[in-house]
Amino acid sequence: MLRRDDRSAARPARARRRRGPGLRVRLTLLATGLVAAVSALLLWLGWMLVGEVAASLPTLAPGTPVLVDGVSVPAGEIAAALGHSARSEVLQVGSIAFALVVLAAAVVSWVLTGHVLQPVHDVTATARRLSAESLDARIDLEGPRDEVAELADTFDEMLDRLQAAFDAQRRFVANASHELRTPLAVLRTEIDVTLADPDADVDELRRMAAVLRDATKRAEGLVDGLLLLARTEAAPRRASDGDEPVDLDLAARGALDAVRAEVEGRGLRVEVRPGADAVVVGDAALLERVVGNLVENAVRHNVDGGWITVTTDSVDGRVDLVVSSSGPVLEPARVPDLFEPFRRGADRVGPGSGLGLSIVRAVVRAHGGTVSAEPVDGGGLSVRVGLPGQVSGSLNTGVTVPT
């Protein structure tokens, strides 16, 4: 995608282009020129061959009367006279044939190039009709599958991707607006109710302040998540001097410690299964955010008395982190939708804005990894993250169960 400065530099370059003959005209001139050159070569060869044939005629005895085109020619000059006459005839007939062939070549080239280039004109016309609000136009070229058809099909596929991207962007903006409107509505409602109460005392004001604090905290978390998601998806992450090794085992234990109170309050059973060499390299803050989001989702969308399992493993230089938990039953077809912003399972409950798994996917992809999820039999979700690992000999492989 062009950056703003690249687009501004490209516009003057397009403006400097002078209007020249169209592609159809150039192809027609090229084809006609080639036919004219070949025809001229054939005419010259015919002229030469006729002269050589005339020169190879047998000689006659001197004094033998010979008429060439009604003119008496001495017998010794018969070959030259016949050659001159034949070459003149070839030039006359050949010139007429040359003009007709060149004219026919020009007409045929003009018609054929127009037919061949018609899909290109269709692509251009379709592109001119497009806008962000009308991305449903397609070429749908029929006919043989040649290079032009491949171009048209590629253009249609590009439009499909663009339309999907614009639709996703519209849904994202609409969902973000809806999510932000909720805390703002809470803020305004609490303020209006408190201002409308003439007998509001200090306790009422404190209650209102607590509600406002929670609403602003939710809005702040939502904005932070949106900014992080936007920065992560804006461009591929490049390795930098700021990258450092991150032990996913330690990150998982830290994330579980952060939610220990909620785990104990809901009676969740937690099991950590550490693996050897569970070290990855990258942005430590983002990678810890990945682990934290997975653990928080496993806790918030769980059921009272449920279970959580955190497993790490290293295979062929790749570290896998699997966070599984009990919870509501999820339809397998809807599991991929959980990675879209503001998308939640139909029966998933708990706080959150629906950005957790979206951020996980963006960060993991930025680090060259993969992420997938599948429902657990009986209810719940299992999320697997795979990241390029780093061999390390000093890892803590003991098992720690936070509850």
Mean pLDDT: 77
Q: What top-tier CATH class of the largest domain fits best?
A: Alpha Beta
Total domains, how many? Answer: 3
Largest sheet: 5 strands, mixed
Strand content: 5-15%
Helix and strand content put the structural class at alpha+beta
Poorly predicted runs are: 345-350, 391-403
Write out the strand line-up for the largest beta sheet, numbering strands in chain order.
Answer: 4-6-7-9-8
- CATH level-two architecture of the largest domain: 2-Layer Sandwich
The CATH superfamily of the largest domain is known as: Histidine kinase-like ATPase, C-terminal domain
- What is the N-to-C succession of helices and strands? HHEEHHHEHHEEHEEHEE
Question: Shape from CA axes?
Answer: elongated
Q: What's the Cα radius of gyration?
A: 40 Å
CATH topology (fold) name of the largest domain: Heat Shock Protein 90
- The total of beta strands comes to 9
Q: Kindly report how far apart the N and C termini lie.
A: 49 Å
Count every helix, treating DSSP H or I runs of 4 or more residues as helices.
Answer: 9
| Helix content, binned percent | 55-70%
Report on this model:
There is one protein chain. The protein is of the alpha+beta class and 403 residues long. It has three domains: 17-129, no CATH class; 152-234, Signal transduction histidine kinase, dimerisation/phosphotransfer (DHp) domain (Helix Hairpins); 244-388, Histidine kinase-like ATPase, C-terminal domain (Heat Shock Protein 90, 2-Layer Sandwich), CATH 3.30.565. The chain has helices spanning 4-16, 23-55, 78-129, 147-196, 202-234, 248-258, 260-266, 284-300, 356-366; strands at residues 66-68, 71-73, 244-247, 269-273, 279-282, 307-315, 318-325, 370-375, 381-388. Strands 4-6-7-9-8 form a five-stranded mixed β-sheet, with helices on one face. Strand 6 and strand 7 (318-325) form a beta hairpin. Helix 2 runs antiparallel to helix 3 and helix 5 packs parallel to helix 9. The relative contact order is 0.07.
